[in-house]
Amino acid sequence: MPEATFHKIAEEIIELEASGHTAAAFSTRFPKFDAEQGYRVARRLHEHRLTIGWRPVGRKIGFTNRTLWARYGVYEPIWGFVYDRTLILAQGDRAEVPLEGLAQPRIEPEIVFKLQAPAPRLRDSQALLAAIEWVAHGCEIVQCHHPDWKVKPADCVAANGMHGRLIVGTPVPVARIPDLAERLPALQVALRRGAEIVDRGIGANVLDSPLLALEYLVELLAAEGEYPQLAAGEVVTTGTLTDAHPVARGETWSTELTGLPLPGLTLRFT
Questions:
Q1: Do the beta carbons of residue 227 and residue 87 sit within 8 Å?
Q2: Which of 137, 225, 246, 269 could be 262's S-S partner, Cβ–Cβ 3.0 to 4.6 Å?
Q3: Residue 124 CB neighbours (<10 A)
Q4: Which domain holds residue 19?
Q5: Rounded Cα gap, residues 109 and 237, in angstroms
Q6: Which residue has the higher pLDDT, 249 or 70?
Q7: If we measure between CA atoms, which residue out of 228, 257, 214, 259 comes closest to residue 64?
Q8: What pLDDT, in 10s, does the model give residues 205-217?
Q9: How many domains does the chain divide into?
Q10: CATH number for the domain harbouring residue 64
Q11: Which residues contact 100 (CB under 8 A, 6 or more apart)?
Q12: What is the per-residue DSSP string for 170-216?
């Protein structure tokens, strides 16, 4: 596609994010629009955010849950940036989460890592664990600017992986969980709206383990070569353990985890 088209799509995403409105998917308007081109649009969105003062603090990985691929028509993981303006650190594992400006927001319970060293580019779980400072439970709020969440990979990556918010609970140093790699796949989460259990998920849903999802991102960034590699200090959220569920103002959602010493979260949406 012409460079002018990439610019046009990026400008429209900026407007949609400012308004919270929806519009027809770009993949329906530009049939040749693919994921590689979507990342080129995402770069323009990222550069715009940097110019207005946003500061990247980490990454999000999306569509790591294979059980959802057929439903959304996306068959490979994607990634985007997490910013200082989208990150919320829960206090006492509780947080108020503003939904203003988000289009069709949905909640995703996830596992979050913070790096204390650059992530190694090798398939070595122990070396990767050595680069991680802490693990925490988090919830990502994703959004979609296209009606009924009817999207293709290009639409998702162009909009920074549909990232809206990331709420992170109490961090636990990796050193306190010596068998973390072995326990992550069996981790279980219950997701509640009020008192009702809406969904359940396990760590193995996420590319067989959240740690393997992190490894996947390391390899993907190395292969792309156009974006910064994961660095010390970054937080990385690894993808939803359950389906993504719509949330609305006034609702309270909570999570409960078993299999790891990580507290759940209670989120009130405003």
A1: no
A2: 137
A3: 11
A4: 3-269
A5: 10
A6: 249
A7: 214
A8: 999 999 999 999 9
A9: 1
A10: 3.90.850.10
A11: 20
A12: --EEGGG-TTHHHHGGG-EEEEEETTEEEEEEEGGGBTTSHHHHHHH
